[in-house]
Write a structure and sequence with these properties.
The complex is a heterodimer of chains A (429) and B (341).
Chain A (H helix, E strand, L loop, with lengths): L1 H7 L4 H11 L1 H17 L3 H20 L2 H5 L8 H17 L4 H29 L4 H23 L21 E3 L15 E3 H23 L3 H26 L5 H4 L5 E3 H19 L1 H11 L1 H6 L4 H27 L1 E3 L7 H11 L9 H26 L2 H33 L1
Antiparallel strand pairs in A: 1-4, 2-3
Chain B lengths: L1 H6 L1 H19 L4 H20 L1 H6 L8 H17 L4 H28 L5 H22 L18 E3 L7 H4 L3 E2 L5 E2 L1 H18 L2 H11 L1 H6 L4 H27 L1 E3 L8 H10 L9 H23 L7 H20 L4
Antiparallel strand pairs in B: 1-4, 2-3
Classes of the chains: A mainly alpha (429), B mainly alpha (341).
């Protein structure tokens, strides 16, 4: 213990800061880009906050679905696309049977689960045969499954699969391009509308909770020096949040631009589902199963020697990921309120993986905090980039291309850096 | 039995499917000479891009999913030719003259990068390819091209599709083309050019450098022991692959009659990868006969599946769906075969 302290002493504060910046360079870069983008876009704060809030509640679940395969050492699971397909099969079924609202939604969750489990089992088997190349294999599996999916819904529906009515194209074969889930009391927004209250009422409570928690913690632990300052800062943030929220909600002192924030609504129930799922992930990773997953992720040979059935555990990891992706996609689609039959699943893996990496995760390590932070940054960029492109270069398209480039680029760079580091470590051994 | 095992089930299915499509086409009274003409054109326009996989596999970097780098260079050559109003054969040659040095430079940088990430080439290269395409989406808007042929009449940047009709579209396809009275056409120029490039590569692969490169790909440790510079030959392989991608794109564009900009090249590596795999290649083994067989099977299959399918039912682009299933199915099969660490 004392040795460690001595070792750490020579590290000055500036060195610590430098180390922190190198370790989190991707995330920090994106913080800068996002701040710059927000300024350049001149977006109304109320639009920014409400869009961001909506995107965070609907996208985070899908990003969290990536965590377990990372822990199990299988890298980023690009085949969550297939989970999304399972979800869409369930959604189409529910919409076709015209089961309304929350009941329909619950049924969609139920139907998607076994489909995703079975598909996940086979993806897992496939990835076991492509060890060392899991990520590219999972990506190609996603493309392959997309072909099968299109085959089913474009050519089999209405012909082999007996479906009739307004869902089927006028030629009698194939499903329509879009399915409106808001119509006829459909499942669209049904989860979101269970509890929807003004966001800044929620933040008043959140601010108070933060203040209370840290004051309680300070009373209990009586910290010194840096730690004390840190806690005081947290209390300050809590107070500021509460005061600002009260100003927004119950006074008229703020300029009109900010007063509009009052109208921002939050789907509290959906947020609780997402938050609960995050907590569930933490708990799961601390159970015996979680430990097994970690062991397999760290060293397959040691795991094998200590009697763990490595292939089974890897299959299980992908099954879980696929099921979670399916649930995430249902949350996503119900929020959109419209299903793009042949397109809604296509970009899912790309955006989820990019978001997770922007949050600071790597191929071999990802946490829940990184998932949340990543979604926040990635979607901020998503919202502001077209307008920033318009204001800076007179072309909104430019901003859109920029964000696509960012998504691909960040994945390429992160994967490349990880491969490079692994190679250097191998050489050093 | 041994031959079947060597071919692998997916390839057997594809061959049977391919054959039966031609039989069905004949039975259903489709215009077979026309289909054969279309197939030949498609084969000729794709063969160089498929060939681009060979140096990559031979030098040991595996299937080059970053083919879009070369493709972008080819497109750059094409748009430069239009910009400087080069018409006809000169336009085609000029496009090459521009594309080749750029692709050498890009290929070299990319090759150096690949040497730092040995073992993860396929995944990283996929995203490098995607990134470069999306980066050039921005470039097509920003770069100061002035030709009215390519710019949007109003607004910024280049069009999504640029016609080559007035410049070098179809220049190879029409060259010495032999037309038959029943509608069958042999695009002699196109096929000759493809054969010529294959021949040049064949000659190269039998030179001292070509053989050394193959040795490096087959067994890097042995190659290093015999004093070959493994990294240098890998870079050479990457450069060759990128250059062939660029040439392939120019050939493709002149045959297609259009240059597609923006996101069009995003997925172009996959059909090339699939074609050579169907021909019998693996991530470690490839030669020119695989290129030719694979291109004929895959492109032929895609060309005739649509007319054959639409002779049964209307609507839906089944050719696209078949492409997705066959292409990604064969890549997956290859990955699973080469599985294990």
């Amino acid at each position: 213990m004392t040795e460690q302290v001595i070792e750490k002493k020579p590290q000055t504060n500036s060195k610590k800061v430098l180390r922190f910046m190198i370790d989190n360079s991707v995330t920090l870069l994106f913080v800068v880009i996002c701040i710059f983008g927000i300024i350049a876009s001149k977006e109304q704060p109320f639009i920014l906050v409400s869009m961001l809030l909506e995107r965070m509640t609907r996208n985070t679940f899908l990003v969290l679905a990536l965590l377990i395969p990372v822990v199990a050492g299988m890298g980023l699971n690009f085949s969550i696309t297939i989970g999304a397909m399972a979800a869409q099969i369930a959604i189409i079924t529910v919409a076709y049977l015209k089961i309304p609202s929350v009941g329909g939604l619950a049924l969609a969750f139920v139907i998607s689960t076994p489909i995703a489990l079975i598909l996940g089992k086979y993806i897992g088997k496939l990835l076991n045969r492509t060890r060392g190349q899991e990520m590219i294999a999972s990506m190609i599996t996603g493309f392959f499954a997309d072909g099968i999916y299109q085959m089913i819904f474009l050519f089999m529906c209405g012909t082999i699969i007996p479906m009739t009515g307004s869902f089927i194209l006028s030629s009698g074969m194939g499903l329509r391009n879009t399915i409106d889930l808001m119509k006829d009391n459909g499942i669209g927004k049904s989860l979101d509308n269970i509890v929807s209250i003004p966001f800044f009422n929620v933040t008043i409570v959140a601010g108070l909770v933060i203040v209370a928690y840290y004051i309680w913690k300070m009373k209990k632990e009586r910290p010194e020096g840096f730690k004390k300052n840190k806690m005081i800062a947290y209390v300050g943030i809590g107070v500021l949040l509460t005061v600002f929220s009260i100003l927004v909600m119950y006074t008229k002192v703020l300029p009109h631009k900010y007063a509009l924030l009052k109208t921002v609504n939050m789907s509290v129930f959906t947020a609780i589902v997402v938050g609960g799922f995050a907590v569930f992930n933490v708990i799961l990773l601390n159970t015996k199963l979680g430990q097994t997953l970690k062991t397999v992720g760290q060293d397959k040979h040691i795991a094998e020697v200590s009697g763990i059935k490595v292939n089974k555990i890897r299959e299980l990891a992908i099954m879980l990921s696929t099921v979670f992706a399916a649930w995430g996609q249902i949350i996503f689609i119900q929020n959109l309120g419209i299903l793009n039959t042949y397109g809604s699943h296509k970009q899912i893996a790309l955006f989820a993986v990019a978001a997770l990496l922007i949050g600071g995760a790597s191929v071999s390590k990802a946490t829940i905090g990184q998932a949340f932070l990543g979604v926040l940054l990635f979607h901020t960029l998503f919202i502001v980039s077209p307008k920033a492109g318009l204001n800076l270069f007179g072309d909104a398209q430019l901003g859109e291309y920029f964000r696509t480039f960012v998504a691909y680029g960040v994945i390429g760079v992160s994967l490349g850096l990880h491969a490079w580091k692994t190679l250097i470590m191998k050489k050093n051994e | 039995m041994n031959a079947i095992k060597r071919l692998g089930l997916p390839r057997i299915i594809i061959i049977i499917f391919f054959m039966s499509l031609w039989v069905v086409a004949g039975v259903n009274g489709l215009h077979v000479p026309g289909l054969m003409k279309d197939s030949l054109v498609r084969i000729g326009m794709n063969v160089v891009m498929v060939l681009a996989m060979v140096p990559a596999i031979r030098s040991g970097i595996g299937l080059n999913f970053a083919l879009p780098i070369g493709i972008i260079c080819g497109i750059l050559g094409g748009v430069m030719a239009i910009e400087f109003e080069m018409v006809g054969l000169w336009g085609f040659i000029y496009a090459m003259i521009i594309a080749i040095p750029i692709s050498v430079a890009f290929g070299w940088i990319y090759g150096v990068m690949l040497n730092k990430i040995k073992g993860s080439e396929m995944l990283v290269s996929t995203y490098v390819g995607f990134s470069i395409v999306s980066l050039f989406c921005i470039a097509w808007i920003v770069l100061p091209f002035a030709s009215d042929e390519m710019r949007w009449p109003i607004g910024e940047g280049l069009r999504t599709v640029v016609s080559l009709e007035s410049t070098f579209g179809g220049i190879l396809n029409k060259f010495w083309a032999v037309e038959f009275s029943n509608g069958f056409v042999i695009p002699t120029g196109l096929l000759l050019f493809g054969a010529f490039i294959c021949f040049v590569y064949y000659v190269f692969s039998n030179t001292r450098v070509g053989i050394a490169m193959k040795t490096v790909g087959d067994n890097p440790k042995f190659a290093a022991a015999t004093g070959l510079n493994v990294d240098r030959y890998r870079i050479l392989g990457t450069i060759l692959s990128t250059v062939l991608g660029a040439i392939g794109m120019v050939v493709y564009a002149q045959s297609f009659g259009y240059i597609q900009l923006y996101t069009a090249p995003l997925m172009m590596a996959f059909p090339a990868v699939a074609a050579i795999l169907i021909g019998g290649a693996t991530a470690k083994k490839a030669n020119i006969s695989f290129v030719i067989i694979g291109t004929i099977l895959f492109q032929g299959l895609l060309t005739i599946s649509l007319p054959v399918a639409s002779s049964f039912f209307d609507g839906g682009n089944i050719s696209e769906v078949i492409r997705m299933i066959v292409q990604n199915g064969i890549i997956l099969y290859a990955l699973a075969q080469g599985g294990g660490e």
